[in-house]
Amino acid sequence: MQHEREDQLLEDKRDLNKFGYAQELLRDMGGFSNFAISFSIISILTGAVSLYGHGLLYGGSGMMGFGWTIVALFVILIAASMSELASAIPTAGALYHWAAILGSKRWGWYTAWINLIGQIGIVAGIDYSFSLFADPLLASAFGYTSTETTTLILFGITLLLHGTFNHIGIRLVARLNDFSAWYHIGVVVILVGSLVFFSRHELQPLDYLFQVGQTFSDKPYALAFLIGLLQAQWTFTGYDASAHTIEETIHPRVRAAWGIFTSVAFSFIFGFIMLAFVTLSIKNAAAASEAPNAFIYVISEALGGTFGSVVLWLVTFAMWFCGLASITSFSRMLYAFSRDKGMPWSRHWAEISTKYRTPAKAIWLVIILSFALALFDYIVKRVNPETTYTTLAFLTAVSVVGLYVAYGIPLYLKLRAEAKGVFQRKHYGPWNLGNWSKTINVLSLLWIIFISIMMVIPPNQTAGYALIAMFVVLLIMDLAYYKNHFPGPQAALSKSEEEIKSQEAKFRDS
Q: What keywords is this UniProt entry annotated with (predicted)?
């Protein structure tokens, strides 16, 4: 068994060397750990829960039955398309490397920066979700008043804790992510069981879950329903984490590909079950939609004081695990991009801790950028207190558009490369879609275009303004940095075998 593992590790290292990179990160993750990091970042107990009020406000109860299912089915197609590319090009740069190899280094550079924008939004959104749930619960326990300021402080503390855990090492984080996957499933079972057996009032009939036509917003129902899709769409983000940790995964061409696909599929199933029973537990949908936190309101009404609080704490801890995994993914993407000199001061963000074998400086840059995005929103609200959007809707819309545009670029480039005959069947990895590949890729792209537009229309136009500002900065960076400093990932292919071995020896000897 040990001999087979060593043979596989050697094969994985040679695979990576073919793309011009040394094996610097510790390759110790199994298939379940790779699945677990994406499953933890998707976290049905974060996205579906924290934006439950958003979905209910705009789409009513039908959002949980139809909205969740519609989004999930399209996202499964996108995940399958990405799994195919992860199997073909198994490097930690993932989206960015796929775009650069299938298109050009400029395509890769833009993909990386757009992905970076989305990653900032998802890390900030996840840890802010945790703080939104934990702060009122802590306030109730310790007798202080929960405000936007106390939530921001708790958000900063949470980021610091997640940064520290990620700095210490991939083994610890991998074990926590393994635990997180089972924890998420366990909490869903506890939550559903509690609502079925201990609810203080009868559940709604099953057809209530698919009731359409009801909205508590001022929008026409069709438009309101589409706006409400943000709940499900933001939940299904971050599953590219399985690709970003591909250089730490054993037998990644198969395991990382399955990690991407199965994390979405299982999240769809368990998420649907959870949302179904929470929604069927609603006694007064209008009151729930008007509550500061609709999910907390529904659970408290159904389960009562102490028992309801215990269940809510279980849900809140799941969000903590989700944030931990998201920083792991983001830091690996940042490390891979910096390794190719894509960032200003790249040598710092590409530096690997010889003690912990983690990209320590990249991890702490992730913490700073994520806090800065939430702080920016906090300052805007202090300057203009009349704003009606929520901080969470702002952060999640930024992450959805940034991530899904980055997901879509390599899929478009793959289709283009296949049309030109540059990317052929022989370039596919062992995990591929065969004759269905082109059809699934096209459907994935159409959904990405549609959802990206829907996420920035009113009332989420502030997210659109923020994204425009970020893209302007990106264009400036193109002129000021790209031309003179970025050799692209293709430059790695020109490294000699001796250079690669020298890099790997540095970590063996440390």
A: Membrane, Transmembrane, Transmembrane helix, Transport
Rounded to whole angstroms, how far apart are CA atoms 356 and 25? 9
Helix (H) or strand (E) holding 39: helix 31-42
Mean pLDDT value across the chain: 88
Q: Which fold has domain 30-485?
A: Amino acid/polyamine transporter I (1.20.1740)
Q: What is the pLDDT of residue 395?
A: 80
Q: Cβ distance 212 to 66 under 8 Å?
A: yes
Contact by Cβ (8 Å): 102, 419: no
Identity (one letter) of the amino acid at 131?
S
- In degrees and rounded to multiples of 5, residue 23 shows phi and psi of -80, 90
Beta carbons of 278 and 195 less than 8 angstroms apart: yes
The backbone region for 251, taken as left when phi is positive above 0, alpha when psi lies in -120 to 50, beta otherwise, is left
Angstrom distance (rounded) from CA 448 to CA 456: 13
Q: How far is CA 145 from CA 135, 139, 142, in A?
A: 9, 6, 9
Q: Is the pLDDT of residue 443 over 70?
A: yes
Which residues, 6+ apart, have CB-to-CB distance to 49 below 8 Å?
Answer: 129, 133, 295, 315, 319
Q: Quick one: three-class SS letters along 208-252? A: HHHCCCCCCCCCCHHHHHHHHCHHHHHHCCCCCHHHHCHHHECCH
DSSP 132-180: HHHHHHHHHHHT----HHHHHHHHHHHHHHHHHHHHH-HHHHHHHHHHH
